[in-house]
Amino acid sequence: MSQIQPQNDQQWTKISLVDTEAIDRERVIGRTQLADDYVLVRVAQRVDFDLLGVPIGKNVHRPRIAMGELFELDSRQARTIAGDLLAAADFFDVIAQTEAQQRL
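The chain above was modelled as a monomer; its predicted structure follows.
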């Protein structure tokens, strides 16, 4: 799979030629260190071409959010997870503060 390096002013930071009829384009949004590993969050999109059509056809797939190597989300799911993570962080802070006060 070969890659094209886009110009600096484009939204996508990496474009990969998947085969003769498709490209994947992506942009890394963030990278969070977790112990000995990290979670990469990126937005990706596939574009297929119908080279036999007259005129040549182009099918632009919906973008997807990739969280790590395991999960692909849409924007609604990403917002839900973000809210859940914020709620978990708030709960964590309350518990940690309560336990710290109990130790005193």
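The two ends are 59 Å apart (CA to CA).
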